[in-house]
Amino acid sequence: MASRRGGYGCGSRGKPRMRLCIAAAALLFAWPACAADEPSLEYQVKAAFLLNFTKFIEWPATSFASADSPFTICVLGKDPFGHALDDAVEGESVGAHKMTVRVISDPPAPQACQVLFMGATDKDPGAILNGLAPGILTVGEHAGFGHAGGIIAFVLDNRRVRFDINQAAAERAGLKLSSKLLSVARSVER
Amino acid sequence: MRRNRIITAFRDRPISEKVIILTMVTTIAALLLAGVGIVMVDSLLFRAGLKRDLAALARIVADNSTAALSFDDPEVAAQPLRALHFRTHLDAACIYRGGTLFAKYLRRDQFACPAPEQRESIRSAGGNLMLSQPILLDGRRIGTLTMLYNLGEIGERVKLYGTTVLIVLLAASIVAFLLSSSLRSVIVTPIERLVRATAAVSETGDYSIRAQKLSSDELGLLVDRFNEMLARIHARDEDLKKALAGREAALREIEKERARFHFMAESMPQKIFTARPNGEVDYFNGQWMEFTGLTFDQIKNWGWTQFVHPEDLEGNLRAWRHSIETGEPFHFEHRFRRADGKFRWHLSRAQAMHDANGAITMWIGSNTDIHEQKEKEVELQRANEDLEQFAYSASHDLQEPIRNVAVYSELVARRYRKVLDAEGQQFLGFLREGGRRLATLVDDLLAYTRASMAELIETPVNASAVLQTSLSNLAEAIRESNAQITYDPLPEVYMGEAHLQQVFQNLIGNALKYRNQEPPQIHISAVVRGSFWCFSVRDNGIGIDPQYREKIFGVFKRLDHDHKYSGTGIGLAICQRVVERYGGRIWVESELGQGATFYFCIPRHGQPVHAAEVQSSASGG
Questions:
Q1: Are B70 and A178 a contacting pair at CB < 8 A?
Q2: Where on the phi/psi map is residue B23: left (φ > 0), alpha (ψ -120 to 50), or beta?
């Protein structure tokens, strides 16, 4: 549907357009694009990836407080996405769980977050990761995020956004990762 | 036209060839149709299967490419596309994101990606299948997979099938040929046998030949029917031969009969002929040709009329035609011209032969030369006439002297009886008696000679009136004898009154005279017989011995030689003369002691008719 629409340009704040912008950005990553006050292309792509991860991963029911509690993507510390992530998740849901975005400063309580994004600013992700309850998909930008026990680690590979996966960490967290997701990962740690 | 020629040519082939041709044509046609059908169905099924197959493949590839699309990795997306190279007819497989090509697989560089479609579709175009499969993630479209499949495979399959069918066809044809060659004996052999049997029958004409039955099918039935037919023809042939033989035997018999008849006819001194029912003469014996000096061809049919005397011809033809029409016997006297030109009298007679149904089959006739006889007759008649004339004149001239004798003897008796002594008176008595008898005798002789002088009768006379006169003339004799006389009403006849009276008077007088002890009973009647009136005078007298039936009509013929009954013995002779003068006939039927009946027949219309007719009419009943 969106793909059938005419333009591929930016500028509109309508949600579908936003995602198309991301898609276009993903193809032509290096291009300076859109307006100066917009989030950077890198984070627009990462926001889209965050949303797409939810489609290749299964969360156990214990991850949620109740059957109709929201699916929350938590951003720990400083939020690098601007409004890109909010735009991406708007109207989206995972099963019966409506998708929301929360920016938090402390490690979350169990069942509060289903996805925890940790920006590059956090000094020691390992300590936070170790303290987390299972059922949370952890996504980080740190080099060595996987080694520290994070599940998906964004990397920049030849100016393209890619990611590594720590499958053992995912299993520990009780998440089921689709093989398709694994096939797209730059590397998978078992 | 062409088709008809082919059919005509086929129709004239021997059945053995027909069987092979039919088997071959049927086999080839069946195989060809089956081959075409199989190829068509197969290509349809193959195409449908191919589409299903391709669609399933496309869905798998599309599903496997969702992650690559989601995470913007064309490399990963290209991997499953490349895996498609094992489908050797898949020329291209491409993934589009939006309208942009995201990943592609081209089997060869010259192939191009088909453009994406809005919906899932698969269609044929230019020998290819074009497939477009949307790539969905969570019900959302994230891209499109397109494929280009080369349908050349179908052509290859068709070629393969065609080759197979051709090989099978060739093999089947050979098998069919071999089979039909051996099978034809089942159909052709019985037919050939039948044909040979018919040929044998028609060549030899031997209907006892039978065709051999080899099977119980329609051909067997045909053989049975043929044999039945032959049997029937055989039987009919036999019947026909028998009938022919019978007919030939009958014809031979007839021929023999004819030869015998001809031999007989030729050996006879008389002239013999036979004629067809229509009167044409179809046979004259040799005497005829000898007599006339003519050939059979000249006188056959109606050619004989040329030698009949012109004066006799008309009557001859009339009498002959009368016989032909009525079947009555032919009887005629006429003159025939001899080879030397002289005419000779002949008596001709002919009788009709009848078949079982009464129809005339032929006439057989004889012609007797009666010339001498005829001439003698004429001579005799002339002599007779002279004699009669003499008798008439003699008796006429005798009347005068006899009357004188009677008158003067009477006078002597009356005047001179006393003068005469007893002896003289006795002599005178003898003289008077002799004179009376002489007078009666001369009167009767006169009557007899007059009887032959019949005059032409113009008006008929009433026989009843004549009978009355006769009875009154006989009144005294009737009274004396106490006779009882009865009679039926009598007709008018063409006869002289005196002549008829003479006949009646003589016959009734005889009846009165030749009586026995009882009083005579006499009955007179008349009936029509043919062209005659036949009168009868019946009495209950002494009768006549049959041996004298003819004799009594002679002159001076008396049966009582002792002169018990008076009379001159000339009465019946007078009657016969009178009746014959009028062309009639007189005869008697009687037994001695049983009474007698005299018959006389007179032509009803006055003309004298042939004696033969009188005979047949009188004896006809």
A1: no
A2: alpha
Q: Give span(s): CATH 3.30.565.10, chain B.
A: 460-619
Residues in chain B: 621
pTM: 0.45
Chain A residues close to B138, C-beta within 8 Å: 55
B602 forms beta bridges with: B533
- Asked if B137 reaches chain A (Cβ–Cβ under 8 Å), the answer is yes
DSSP secondary structure, B124-163, as one string: EETTEEEEEEEEEETTEEEEEEEEEEETHHHHHHHHHHHH
Q: For chain A, which residues make up each domain, given as ranges? A: 55-189
The per-residue pLDDT for range B520-546, each reduced to its tens digit, is 999 999 999 888 999 999 998 888 888
In terms of CATH, what superfamily is B460-619?
Histidine kinase-like ATPase, C-terminal domain (3.30.565.10)
According to DSSP, the residues that pair with A109 across neighbouring strands are: none
**What pLDDT is attached to residue B135?**
92
Yes or no, beta carbons of B67 and A160 under 8 Å apart:
no
Residue among B67, B73, B143 whose CB faces A56 most closely: B67
Cβ-defined contact of A52 to B100 (cutoff 8 Å): no
Per-residue pLDDT reduced to its tens digit, B58-79? 999 998 899 999 988 888 888 8
Q: Measured between beta carbons, which residues in chain A are less than 8 angstroms from residue B100?
A: 27
Q: Which residue does chain A place closest to B64, by CA atoms?
A: A180
Which CATH number, 3.30.310, 3.40.50, 3.90.350, 1.10.1270, labels domain A55-189? 3.40.50
Q: From CA B62, how far away is CA A40, in angstroms rounded?
A: 31
Distance from CA of A189 to the nearest CA of B (A): 18
pLDDT tens, position by position, A128-138: 888 888 889 99
CB–CB of B519/B484 below 8 Å?
A: yes
Strand partners, B95: B103, B145
Say which DSSP state B334 is in: E
CB contact, 8 Å: A180 with chain B?
Answer: yes
E strand or H helix that includes residue B94: strand B90-97
Note the pLDDT of residue B554: 79
Query: A76 CA to chain B: closest CA distance, Å?
Result: 23
Nearest to B599 by CA among B530, B533, B543: B533
Task: Output DSSP code: residue B301.
Answer: B
Which residues of chain A have a CB within 8 Å of the CB of B75? none
* B133-157: average pLDDT: 88
DSSP secondary structure of A102-128: EEESSPPPTTT-SEEEE-TT-S-HHHH
Give pLDDT tens digits for B386-435: 877 787 788 778 888 888 888 888 888 888 878 888 888 888 888 888 88
For A24, B231, B389, B390, B549, the CA distances from B384, given in Å and listed in that order, are 182, 84, 8, 10, 24
| pLDDT tens figures, A136-172 | 999 998 888 888 888 999 998 888 899 999 999 999 8
Chain B positions touching A161 (Cβ under 8 A) are 72
From the CA of B105, how many Å to the nearest CA of chain A? 19
- Window 413-432 of B: residues touching A by CB (8 A cutoff) are none
Tokens describing residue B131: 């497939």
Residue A8 at interface with chain B, using a CB cutoff of 8 Å: yes
Residues of chain B with Cβ-Cβ distance to A180 below 8 Å are: 64, 66-68
Q: How far apart are CA B7 and CA B29, in angstroms?
A: 17
Contact B67 A181 (CB under 8 A): yes
CATH 3.30.450.20 placement within chain B: 268-369
How confident is the model over A77-95, as pLDDT tens digits?
Answer: 888 888 888 888 888 888 8
**Chain A residues inside the 8 Å CB shell of B74:** none
Q: Tell me yes or no: is domain B268-369 CATH 3.30.450.20.
A: yes
Q: Is A23 on the interface with B (CB under 8 A)?
A: yes
